[in-house]
Design a protein that fits this description.
By secondary structure, the protein is of the alpha+beta class. It is 43% helix and 22% strand. The protein starts with a helix and ends with a helix.
Length: 678
């Protein structure tokens, strides 16, 4: 019985859900019909209108549906068309759809309408739906265009879209001959006779082109005669010709294809080519073919795809790097504690400890690279002069190499607001990449200039002042395929490369609202051009950087820790205790708030709170500092995170913290931070 009752309740619940879904669909359908710009109406078997939407009522100069319901539909068409439309309505009730045009009596309107039978679940036709559109203006326009060759020619010549007139009569003749030969399947015919269309493209003739076409194909009017056959061969290569023939063969209304053309001066153009396939009456002697240049759009799409790909990988990389930083924090911290407690002067053991430190530093640099292009990371902005950064990075990277440095720096300041570490990383990665591309040595040319030239990219076309940095090597260069992948994560052509250097550079520049471009020729070298928004701000840098102060702690403090990672909480407790502080550790928001309230109640409040920014499944440091600041506005707080960047870590003071502590951290960094705050 229990099982049967459960099944029955489940069925009732499912039916209710289906009914609710059906009602929602009905509401959506009614909304669509009412908001449609076309006249939508229903007709019963007696030929009466039984419903009409707002657009239809407006078309008939009526305000209420009751005014039209019950009237005969046929009464609204002109007398000479009534019999024809009545026949179409009868056919609709027999299941046949139809399209027609009509004009009401004594009206200049021209209406286009269609009938569509509405079938019940039992297969019977209950009513007919009619959709009517006012095409008066459209028909008037067509009449005016056909009556004025001058207007047409003006539109043709001045249109922004490129238009060519092509004589395609040879294609129609070719297909008619195949029909006479008994060909019924054109695809199969081409598979069996691949060479039958050889030479056919030369028979297609270019008759004329408008000004936009002259510009896109870089052909003057005087060159048209001599260049026409060359252009037609490019526009009608074997594959495109097959597609055109198939479109005509299959009686398509429009042929449309995206093509890529290699024009003169190594200029590649991507365009949408389209033409309306003529009817037998129109003929194929002068077919207008349109070309829409989508070269920039294609570049933008590729850029957008690249950006989205980086964002997706950034989500994964950021999570991995965050967790790995937590692990590194435990290793790094306990290694330092072990060194502090080491009493044996064993040089070999010390050497192993130093090697372990170096390995941890290498791992930390790798996680920082991952975090740099992880989604959600925000740069830590300060006012910088790019010239100083470039000089510093180039000097460091080229030291001891066989590459000669050539610097061309603007005489005026080239100021930007940027994260010094991240921007230095960009220049370092690109310079190292350039050095590696010149194993036999060479010259590296770097220029830094201010520019106002418009910079086009996926996000905008900017004419704001920019700082442009060109880094040019004399290396092996890259072909088009390598250039297309050079910023892809983990793509590298180097035996020991990680494939993250240029990916990280691209992500950093993107986060700084800048743009990076690459131009390369195999055997001649590569130029990376970086554009960064310039700033004219002057004055002190308000950067939130805690300088290390090497002095004894000012006082012993009572400190609360909140971190969900027990290893890190234990490590912090031991480090702080070693520095002489009293420590209470907690692992989540609730226990931290409870301990804080207990300390206030007993008259022994905390001097400082160190809290993890992110606690899985609950509130983290951002929420906790708000609450404890409400209880004690003068509380001092430090935020920690495995993400070294982000809105809170980049600007901790804005969110109620006194400072930030990025993981992995050292005993010295904690000591210096406490000396500044306490």
């Amino acid at each position: 019985m229990q099982q049967g009752k459960y099944n029955k309740n489940t069925e009732i619940s499912a039916l209710k859900q289906e009914l609710d879904n059906a009602k929602k669909k009905e509401v959506r359908l009614k909304t669509l019909i009412e908001s449609a710009p076309l006249c939508i109406h229903e007709i019963n078997h007696q030929g009466q209108i039984i419903s009409m939407n707002k657009a239809g009522l407006s078309m008939m100069n009526m305000e209420n549906e009751n005014e039209v319901c019950g009237l005969k539909y046929i009464d609204f068409v002109c007398s000479k068309q009534r019999q024809q439309i009545d026949d179409l309505l009868k056919k609709a009730f027999l299941g046949e759809s139809s399209n027609f045009e009509f004009s009401p009596d004594n009206s200049p309107l021209i209406l286009k309408s269609c009938f569509a039978p509405i079938v019940n679940s039992d297969g019977s036709i209950e009513r007919v739906m009619g959709i009517t559109e006012d095409i008066t203006l459209q028909r008037q326009y067509e009449k005016e265009v056909s009556a004025s060759e001058f207007k047409y020619r003006s539109i043709f010549n001045n249109a922004d879209i490129s238009i060519l007139h092509e004589d395609m009569s040879c294609l129609k003749i070719f297909l008619d001959n195949l029909i006479r030969e008994g060909v019924t399947d054109l695809n199969t015919f081409f598979e069996q006779n691949p060479d039958r269309i050889t030479g056919l493209s030369s028979e297609v003739k270019l008759l004329s082109m408008n000004q936009a076409a002259h510009q896109i194909f870089d052909i003057t009017t005087s060159q048209l005669q001599s260049e026409a056959s060359v252009l037609i061969n490019k526009l009608c290569d074997k594959e495109i010709l097959k597609e055109k023939l198939l479109a005509i063969w299959n009686h398509q209304d429009v042929y449309r294809a995206e093509i890529s053309l290699n024009l003169a001066k190594d200029r590649e153009v991507h365009a949408i080519m389209a033409f309306r396939i003529p009817s037998e009456l129109d003929g194929f002697e002068a077919v207008p073919v349109t070309f829409v240049d989508v070269t920039q759009q294609k570049r933008n799409e590729e850029e957008l795809f690249k950006t989205r790909k980086l964002e997706s990988i950034g989500l994964l990389a950021g999570g991995i790097a965050h967790d790995f930083n937590n692990i590194l924090t435990g290793i790094y911290g306990h290694l330092q504690l072990a060194e502090n407690k080491w009493t044996n002067d064993d040089s070999e053991a010390k050497r192993h400890l130093n090697t372990a430190h170096k390995s941890i530093d290498a791992a930390r640099r790798l996680t920082n690279q991952l975090l740099t292009f992880a989604k959600g990371g925000d740069p830590f902005f300060e006012l910088l002069d790019v010239r100083e950064i470039i000089e510093e990075c180039s000097s460091l990277c080229l030291s001891g190499t066989n590459v000669k440095n050539s610097l061309l720096l603007a005489s005026q300041p080239c100021q930007i607001k940027a994260d010094r570490g991240q921007i230095s990383q960009v220049f370092t990665n690109i310079i190292i990449n350039a050095v590696q591309s010149m194993p036999a040595g060479g010259k590296l040319s770097i220029s830094v200039t201010n520019t106002n030239a418009p910079i086009s990219n996926i996000h905008r076309i900017s004419d704001q002042p920019m700082v442009k940095i060109d880094i040019t090597d004399e290396g092996v260069g890259m072909n088009g395929k390598l250039q297309a992948r050079v910023f892809d994560p983990y793509f590298t052509t180097k035996e020991h490369g990680t494939g993250l250097g240029l990916t990280t550079a691209y992500s950093i520049i993107n986060k700084h609202k800048g743009y990076i471009n690459i131009e390369s020729t195999v055997g001649l070298g590569t130029t990376f051009s970086i554009f960064l928004p310039a700033t004219t701000d002057i004055g002190n840098n308000n950067c939130d950087v805690q300088e290390y102060v090497d002095k004894k702690n000012k006082k012993n403090a009572k400190i609360m820790i909140m971190d969900d990672e027990e290893v890190i909480a234990d490590l912090l407790e031991e480090m702080l205790s070693l520095l002489g502080h009293e420590v209470v550790k907690t692992h989540d928001y609730s226990s931290a708030l409870s301990q804080y309230n207990v300390a206030l109640t007993t008259g022994k409040p905390f001097d400082l709170a160190i809290m993890d920014l992110t606690i899985p499944g609950g509130h983290g440091g951002e929420q906790l500092v708000k609450e404890i600041s409400r209880l004690t506005p003068d509380i001092k707080a430090i935020v920690t995170s495995g993400y070294s960047t982000g809105k809170v870590m980049s600007n901790p003071e804005k969110y109620g913290f006194n400072a930030r502590l990025a993981k992995p951290f050292s005993l010295d960094s904690i000591k210096g931070l406490l000396n500044e705050i306490l």
